[in-house]
Specification:
Number of domains of chain A: 2
Helix content of chain C: over 70%
Radius of gyration of chain A: 20 Å
Number of helices of chain C: 9
Order of helices and strands of chain A: EEHEEEEEHHHHHHH
Largest sheet of chain A: 5 strands, mixed
Strand order of the largest sheet of chain C: 1-2
Organism (chain C): Belliella pelovolcani
CATH class of the largest domain in chain A: Mainly Alpha
CATH superfamily of the largest domain in chain A: Alpha-helical ferredoxin
CATH topology of the largest domain in chain A: Fumarate Reductase Iron-sulfur Protein, Chain B, domain 2
Oligomer: heterotrimer
Organism (chain B): Belliella pelovolcani
Number of strands of chain C: 2
Strand content of chain A: 5-15%
InterPro entries (chain C): Cytochrome_b-558, SQR/QFR_C/D
Protein name (chain C): Succinate dehydrogenase / fumarate reductase cytochrome b subunit
Keywords (chain C): Membrane, Transmembrane, Transmembrane helix
């Protein structure tokens, strides 16, 4: 396959940035999208040009490090991570536009690399059960209905890639935040801090500058792990019931 | 130097309890006076950083990824072992200990492995309390499965994403301590060197991957939780960023490196599809529970297959060779990883490989689907089949999967004593970065167990023993040793940038990987290893004269990051070859063709090689010095593994 | 900041207000439609004029109507606050976007739809509410009792084809607004459940077609009756 790539190039956070066009040839259908970019970078390096910087690590679709807004969609045309996207999803002669995630809380650091530490700060605000190591009850002490454990697992599968934010017209982080709120609200272990968690995580999400939710469902449609927006509804319930009933003023 | 493993005296089952009582404690009010650096935020790093911060120490946690949640522990699929015996099927701490020692082909310490089995039960309790959504039965209790050929069901799992859920649990505990102000996080920061003052590890030098800033961090102890070095092979199931740099730089400062050649090659990975391949993807070995491994019986049929003249489904039953079932009638397709991998290599070497490259065997679900129905198979392996389809474009419900072994885990690592301290006082190694618990071969679902055991339940006790006997005085980072280390780091980076040769970094990495795979992979010979050593030396020389590293240090620079890591892989590769060459026996993942039983199985030499090889770095261009820590087996009888 | 103002300044609190006011306005649509359908009774506007008189005099209705205005205002104000915030959350737009593959058009354009409906509302209130309340309305009497002949004003307005076209078109936009807004309000309130959500979605869709269609029917019928 021969392709034309329009890639966002930006030297650093302060730089304005612009698209640059690259031609690339002899791409095999069996390559992953990132392997295609590896080939481009190897070509650029050989010519002494700065390779295109993009985030990636596990290349198995689980670490959540890869991003890229490919041809108008986060992680490209398939509902998967960019590292699991293969070139057989494209055709010879295609022009592919590659942009970084766009959101105020995700500043571009270089080319296609963005800073997603806002997600870490949302988790730090309350995405945990406050138990120290040791001194916990036996793992089978509290039975958990299988259906509840499965629902919690569905929410817990979030890989924190940020595709939900990238897909949302409002750059909202509701799906990400609600996945963690849901997981812990469903499990008995999360009950003790249930109210304070919802309040604090939502407050942090807002403080980071993410947009509000318009319930378009774009996040769910693009989430590579298929996290459902029922989690957003659950977080809304959690939040509303927390603000009217918690002891915090 | 005599290597003192500090294994406590006394009966096996009492060692850890006794040790916990005997270690010195740091007074609760004094803990805040001590600073601890944790490098790496995988299972070992995140659990250690969180647990130490909970105790009151000041922790600084470093990772090269953009978030601690992305460390490669996240990719572990199958599960985590624990001797809970919830299934009432005869499991016990002793049985888990025994299985692990035997599985490691008797090249691990009894004391360490017993402790691992002992604390395994606490890990599950801890994770459940954190909200890790393990799989459950309809009655609400935890589900278990048998894994990797174990005779008991002791593996806890969360779908096929156990590593992810455990890591997110540890990450949440870490995040809580960040919010409490007890842990300071340094993402996108790579450790470049250990700083030694008065013979002790007192800090590290790091590079900020965004700005290129070289910075020093001072502490009273340094924990390396930096994972394994499988990427020395270029192609492995490791993440792209996984590297040996932190461990290797520590090694060059005096930490002994143990059993570097002990590498685990996982049998069920998706085969290489071409030169563009950047990494390999593992598929859970649970697939071997129902899939049948085979290749064509003759080279002629295999050739037709490779040329695309026939397809797998055209090959008649009598023309198929189910070689594992044929050679190992009792274990069949469920033989341990090393045996399954080696046999795949043999049939492919004979010319019976099944894909275009000739390096693949079939894993066929036809009979299982016929027996149980597609729905049952889909329920068990649906997500794995989907993943396979996504990557290869083939539908495993209709055509057999193709698999081939790939480098997966490294049992070797920094030498540590029972306290997890390296030969440098104050420098610890946890998780895959150390060598301690898996011997020459790691059992399935044991990596997660070890990472969390080290971080949650071992280091919080043993670090106190060291810190309590050291003053709490802090050393400022303008100390001459820090300045010196910073300069060394900068000079090395500048040197890489100034070569301006003609070859890219990947060119060298791929070449090194091929040498390692061909000569220091699944089967090794003296001749091949000797050849490999010369080739690596040559490649290293070429690297330092002809590599082209683009850009400058003061920016996000992928090319420089890679070059820095590959320069260390080149040195490690040579040591791995030395280690494989000196060990004139076969054990676990280390298979020397000269040393095998008449049936082609690994032949150990317990008389001469029942020791841990610990290598000491002597200086640039010098051969490393071998030290031996004898392995004493007081509780288990050494036997030959047999899976016939 | 008190917990109330803190909640109302959070995105979730503001969304809650949007959902609650939206649902109230949905209810209002039903009541309003029920009354207006009397315009189609073949009695020369008698029942409609009587109904209008009741609406104007009943104290409960007057309170509700003030509430109704307040809710419209709140719905508009908070939509402006939220839209501004949402715009700021993505300062640099994508060069290429295929949003149509992951969401429906109406859900992404509630602001535009809402603005059009607001313009309609202003014209509508000016043309009828303001005229009836403060303008000079012809009188009519039934069984000796005097009534404002509101029907005449309506009939007059709906004699104008441009006016009718504007009404019908506006109801189209209302339909789109409701097609997302109805189910979305339930989702925002957290009322998402495997058993009931499919039903809510279906009812929402039916509602968003039926109610605006009936509203649009009135000017059309009256235009052709003339």
């Amino acid at each position: 396959m021969n392709l034309t790539l329009k890639i966002w190039r930006q030297k650093n956070n302060a730089d304005k940035g612009d698209f640059k066009e690259y031609k690339i040839s002899d791409i095999s259908k069996d390559m992953s999208f990132l392997e295609m970019l590896d080939v481009l970078n190897e070509n650029l390096s050989e010519k002494g040009e700065d390779p295109v910087h993009f985030d990636h690590d596990c290349r198995e679709g689980i670490c959540g490090m890869c991003s890229l807004y490919i041809d108008g969609k986060p992680h490209g045309p398939q509902q998967t991570t960019t590292c699991q996207l293969h070139m057989r999803s494209f055709s010879d002669g295609d022009v592919i536009t590659i942009e970084p995630w766009r959101a105020k809380p995700f500043p571009v650091m270089k080319d296609l690399v963005v800073d997603r530490s806002a997600f870490d700060r949302i988790i730090q605000a309350g995405g945990y059960v406050s138990v120290n190591t040791g001194g916990v009850p036996d793992a089978n002490e509290i039975p958990i209905p299988k259906s509840i454990a499965d629902l919690a697992m569905d929410a817990a599968q979030c890989i924190g890639c940020g595709a939900c934010v990238a897909a949302c017209k409002n750059a909202s982080a509701m799906l990400f935040t609600s996945a963690k709120v849901s997981q812990l609200a469903l499990l008995p272990q999360g009950q003790v801090e249930r109210k304070i968690r919802a309040e604090k995580m939502v407050a942090q999400m807002d403080a980071e500058g993410f947009g509000a939710c318009t319930n378009t469902g774009a996040c769910e449609a693009e989430c590579p792990k298929g996290i459902s927006i029922t989690n957003i509804a659950r977080m809304n319930r959690e939040y509303f019931s927390a603000v009217v009933s918690s002891d915090t003023l | 130097m005599i290597l003192d493993s500090k294994i406590p005296e006394g009966p096996l089952a009492d060692k850890w309890t006794k040790h916990k009582f005997n270690v010195k404690l740091v007074n609760p009010a004094n803990k805040r006076k001590y600073d601890v650096i944790v490098v790496g935020t995988g299972l070992a790093g995140a659990s250690a950083a969180a647990s130490l911060a909970e105790l009151g120490y000041n922790v600084k946690a470093f990772c090269f990824q953009d978030s601690p949640r992305r460390a490669h522990s996240i990719a572990a699929q199958g599960g985590i072992n624990a001797a809970k015996n919830y299934q009432n099927d005869g499991d016990s701490v002793y049985r888990l200990f025994y299985d692990t020692i035997k599985g490691g082909d008797y090249r691990a310490r009894e004391g360490n492995v017993y402790r691992l089995a002992e604390v395994s039960v606490n890990i599950i309790d801890q994770c459940v309390a954190q909200g890790v959504p393990f799989a459950r039965e309809y009655g609400g209790l935890l589900a278990n499965r048998s894994f990797g050929g174990a005779q008991v069901s002791r593996t806890f799992y969360a779908k096929g994403q156990t590593g992810q859920q455990l890591l997110l649990g540890a990450y949440s505990a870490l995040s809580r301590q960040v919010a409490n102000g007890k842990v300071k996080l340094y993402p996108r920061t790579e450790m470049m060197d250990v700083v030694m003052i008065d013979g002790k590890a007192r800090g590290i030098v790091t590079r900020n991957l965004i700005t290129g800033a070289i910075e020093s961090h001072s502490a009273h102890a340094v924990l390396l939780c930096t994972g394994g070095y499988g990427n020395v092979f270029f192609l492995s199931t490791n993440a792209m960023g996984s590297n040996v740099t932190a461990a290797w730089r520590a090694h060059k400062k005096g930490a002994f490196f143990s059993n570097p050649s002990f590498t685990q090659i996982h049998p069920t990975c998706i085969p290489v599809s071409g030169d563009h391949q950047s990494k390999l993807t593992l598929m859970s070995e649970s697939l071997r529970n129902d899939g049948r491994v085979w290749v064509p019986a003759t080279v002629e049929t295999a050739e037709k297959l490779r040329k695309g003249q026939i397809t797998a489904n055209d090959i008649k039953e009598e023309d198929r060779d189910y070689y594992l079932e044929r050679k190992y009638p009792s274990f069949g397709n469920l033989v341990p990883r090393d045996v399954a991998s080696r046999n795949a290599k043999y049939v492919c070497d004979e010319g019976r490989g099944v894909n275009e490259t000739g390096e693949a065997v079939f894993l066929d679900f036809r009979d299982a689907i016929k027996r149980d129905g597609r729905n049952v198979i889909e329920a068990k392996y649906g997500n794995l089949f989907d993943m396979y389809m996504q990557i290869t474009g083939d539908n495993p419900y209709e055509v057999p999967m193709m698999i081939y072994p790939a480098v997966h885990y490294t049992m070797g690592g920094l030498w540590v004593d029972y306290n997890l301290m390296t030969t440098i006082p104050g420098l610890y190694a946890l998780g895959e970065a150390n060598f301690s618990d898996h011997g020459a071969n790691r059992l399935g679902a044991s990596a997660l167990m070890q990472g969390l055991a080290d971080g949650y339940f071992v280091i919080p006790y043993t670090i106190g023993d060291y810190l309590a006997s050291n003053s709490a005085d802090r050393i400022p980072v303008d100390h001459p040793e820090f300045k010196k280390a910073e300069k060394e780091v900068s000079d090395r980076l500048q040197k890489l940038l100034s070569i301006k040769g003609e070859k890219t970094v990947d060119y060298f990495h791929k070449k090194l990987g091929k040498i390692m795979w061909d000569y220091c992979g699944m089967a090794r010979t003296e001749e091949g290893l000797t050849k490999a050593k010369a080739m690596i030396k040559e490649l290293k020389k070429e690297f330092w004269t002809n590599v082209n590293v683009l850009g400058s240090n003061e920016e996000l620079n992928l090319s420089l990051e890679k070059a820095n890591r590959v320069s260390d892989f080149l040195e490690l590769g040579e040591l791995m070859v030395d280690d494989a060459l000196h060990r004139n026996e076969s054990c676990g993942g280390h298979f020397r063709e000269e040393y095998q039983t008449p049936e082609g199985e690994a032949l150990r030499d317990d008389e001469n090689f029942a020791y841990v090889a610990a290598w000491k770095y002597l200086g640039e261009g010098q051969e490393e010095e071998l030290h031996k820590e004898p392995l004493v087996f007081e509780n288990v009888k050494l036997t030959q593994r047999s899976y016939k | 900041m008190s917990w109330v103002s803190k909640t109302l300044s959070s995105t979730l609190g503001q969304k809650l207000l949007m959902a609650l006011t939206g649902l109230f306005l949905i209810l209002f649509l039903v009541v309003h439609l029920a009354g207006n359908l009397q315009l189609l009774f073949p009695d020369g506007g008698e029942s409609f004029n009587k109904y209008a008189a009741t609406m104007a005099s009943n104290p409960f209705i007057r309170v509700v109507s003030i509430g109704n205005f307040a809710f419209i205002l709140l719905h508009v104000i908070y939509s402006i606050i939220l839209t501004r915030r949402n715009k700021q959350s993505r300062p640099v737009a994508y060069a290429v976007s295929k949003a149509s593959t992951n969401s429906v058009w109406a859900s992404r354009n509630m602001g535009i739809l809402g603005t059009i409906i607001l313009i309609f509302l202003i014209v509508h209130l000016k043309g009828f509410y303001y005229e009836i309340k403060f303008g000079s309305v012809p009188m009519t009497s039934y069984e000796g009792v005097e009534f404002k002949d509101v029907y005449a004003i309506v009939a007059n307005a709906y004699g104008n084809i441009l006016y009718v076209a504007f009404y019908v078109l506006s109801m189209g936009f209302l339909a789109f607004h409701l097609s997302h807004g109805f189910a979305s309000a339930f989702q925002t309130l957290g009322l998402n459940h495997v058993k009931y959500s499919p039903l809510i979605k279906k009812v929402g869709l039916g509602f968003s077609i039926l109610i605006p269609a009936l509203f649009a029917l009135i000017p059309l019928v009256m235009f052709f009756q003339n």
